[in-house]
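Researcher: Let's try something more involved. This one mixes different molecule types, so please make sure each is placed in the same coordinate frame as the others.
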Amino acid sequence: MKREMTSEEIEIGEAVETSPGVVVERRCFLRTVALAFSSLAVPGMATAQLARASDVRLSYEEFLKEVIPVAKKLVSDTSLTGQHRYLLTLASYAVRLADVPVPPMRDSGQGAGAGTFIGAIPGGDPFIVLHWRMEPGTVIRPHPHTYGNVMTLGLEGEIRVENFEMVGVRDFDAKGTFKVQKTQSQVLTPGQVNLVNLERGYIHGFQAGGRGGRGLDITTRIREKRETPFLNMSKKPVELEPGVYEASWGT
Amino acid sequence: MKHTIDTIEVSKRETAPGFFETRRRMFLLPIFALPVALGRAGKALGNQMGQEGSMAGPATSNTGRLDWESFIKQSVPVAEELHKDSSASGQEAYLHWLASMIARARTAEIPKAKLGRFGKLEPPVSFGVSYRGRPFFIVEWKLEPGAFLPPHCHPNVSVCTVGLEGEARIRNFEIIGQAPEFSSRNSFLVRETHDEIMAPGRINTLSSMRDNIHTFQAGKTGARGIDISSYHGPDVGFSFLDIAAKPKEPESRMFEAAWKGQSV
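Model: All components are placed in one shared frame. Result:
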């Protein structure tokens, strides 16, 4: 556990990350505000400065460099709230990403047909980064995330992402039919994110628009790996509100 | 949160359906106050450092939960910095960071607002301001069972909506092409970009550049939540909309819409 520090303990010019994304830099006061308040001279003032406070885009390497230390600090809290914080924090960095080079891709194995591709990008700990591409009109079948939470970032085109949860007790081994509730339907465009918390919206599926789409899945394994089923779902809701569908697990 | 900068009232505006915020102009920052202001920010972050340190260690399910005072103390200095970037990605970073902080707050400790009924909506919808600050202010909302808050836009504003009780359906829309002036009753197209369930701990965000129209439909038990709102540009008012019940283009979820003013 870090002890509490005062600004005076930081050397002038030294930067310390006080919380994810926040860097406290002790600056010579003159250097910091002299231009705006030239009549003032109060040395030794610590000012808070975010690593990125303007519309500066991060390269993939810069993104990793900034986000990995933060992710390592936050990943151990796997509670609902902890995951929420972890994913939202990742998102606050990821939304500043410039485009990311496309790695070699293979068939995703998750499509309802051909035309969906996926490839891993090196780097990442505690997470892995998957780059995916969907051709126009293609579908990634709804599937649950049982051991890894996900922050999905849109990079190109347009994808409709839907999230679901089982109604009642969550059971990935359930036989026969059960009910799922659609908790979100979202149009994912470049710079936008969709989050899969293992406690919330943990089933997701993708439908590409007319231009197809491309994006990243930043996946963090926090539970024991297990086989992932697909979700078979009725076309229409069994109840009009609040979007409840009959479903079963399939392969 | 005490303001260290004095202000002067210049105008009043309806910042969200049902409540007014007084818009103030900053006095010139008293020169002697600047070191105090900066010192507070530095100290707040210094304190935050100590608290954040615990997040690096073995976490339990409740590690890092913030009481209200800590939330404000830790959020405001960073929010002020992030808020300076009003670009699309800047607002996204701001919103997601703010969401990551409110996700940690103990929701039972969020100050309860004095709620007032909005318009003549039946079942009733109520609003109240639970926190006035900069760069964000917080509006509490309460929807009685089955209540419907009509679609409305938030020009130049970002909103982080957090569910606290009950369940509501929240939908976001974006304007396709150019919308007419608020005074016009001509129709235009909007696209549904989000349709989701709002429940305790769930978060929905909109920025001044995406998903800027939202509407709420309460479930059988009603719903209560907060909107953490921030201005990213000048106040140009807002308007409710009529949006057709059925989409004009079902595949792309495009609907015909028309402005309907500020009263419902």
